[in-house]
Amino acid sequence: MGSRIICWLFLFAFWAPSCKKKETIPDMPKVEAYRETRTIEHNGVEVQIVIDMPALQSVDILLLYHGTVALDSKILEAANNTLDVFKRITKRQNIAYISVAYPEENLKIGDNLLHAEAALLWLKEKGSNELKRSIHKIFLAGHSQGGYLVSRLNTMHPTDGVIANAPGPLNLVYRCELEENGQIPKGIACNLLLNSYGTTSQNPDAYFARSLLNFTENFKSKVLYIQGLNDSYIQMTSWPIFKQKVQDCTNCEAAYFLELERLGHSALFESPYAQIIYNDFIDTP
Questions:
Q1: pLDDT tens per residue, range 76-105
Q2: pLDDT of 15 higher than 50
Q3: How much is the mean pLDDT over the chain?
Q4: All domains of the chain in start order, with CATH
Q5: CA dihedral over 230, 145, 170, 90, signed as positive or negative
Q6: DSSP code of 160?
Q7: Burial (0-12, 13-18, 19+ Cβ within 10 Å), 250
Q8: Residues 6+ positions from 29 with CB-CB distance below 8 Å
Q9: CB within 8 A of 48, min separation 6: which ones?
Q10: Is 11's pLDDT higher than 60?
Q11: CA nearest neighbour of 229 among 239, 244, 214, 219
Q12: What crossing angle do the helices spanning 75-89 and 272-283 adopt, rounded to 10°?
């Protein structure tokens, strides 16, 4: 009889936890997908951004920078178009997109870096609270002048990776000299520099100081450069020099180059192979 009691006590003790009332784990608050435009501010600098957020609690973010449109009346359209094209080529589902409508009108090349930086620092410092999401990784991506801006940001602030398609202007001395000599049509960018600095022969250092060739060191994060080799001759004249300077950098994080035959300024958005490399890049830890 005693042994039976001990046996039943043992069985009761073993199975008792399964009879206890289970604790109720509160549901995580549900979030909805949305797309909106808002104005954000960091250290007194305001800039408009377009946000495309999935219905997920935890996301990685692609912070996007459009190419040149010159007129500020066009920058929101450019930001939306850039978001759409990157969303189309990106395979991962846990990505949120923020496209920066940085200003251009009446600004010399590089002056809008303040607005580009404001968006990045706002995202780093306030993004989780403002967007109501857990943010894991931040990638920068840009096309043309947007590639110029993300390259320069990469010399200033670490992120989880940078993608630049056909970044430029690479060499404003060369480009603006061609305009001064009447070899190519005059443009707004060089005209603003001319009004401030005089000609390229009078003040070449001021032009070079704003060229991307002057920002090829101290990259904080890995970067993928994509360049169509059938781009304009202005771009392609300076591209090998830029590539070599980046490859020679001794204080940079890893830089990868993808060059594509028979493709031009929009190579990333036209080449399925480039899009595979791009997706692999953002998927690599």
A1: 999 999 999 999 999 999 999 999 999 999
A2: no
A3: 92
A4: 32-169+222-283 (3.40.50.1820), 172-210 (no CATH)
A5: negative
A6: S
A7: exposed
A8: none
A9: 37, 38, 39, 40, 75, 76, 79, 100, 101
A10: no
A11: 239
A12: 80
Contact 153, 116 (CB under 8 A): yes
Place of tokens 């005089």: 198
Residue 127: CB atoms within 10 Å: 22
- Spell out the alpha helix ranges (H) of 20-94: 75-89
* Over residues 212-239, mean pLDDT: 98
- The per-residue pLDDT for range 21-60, each reduced to its tens digit, is 455 555 557 899 999 999 999 999 999 999 999 999 999 9
Query: Which tokens is 48 given?
Result: 């408009």
Element housing 53 (H / E)? strand 45-53
Amino acid at 91: K
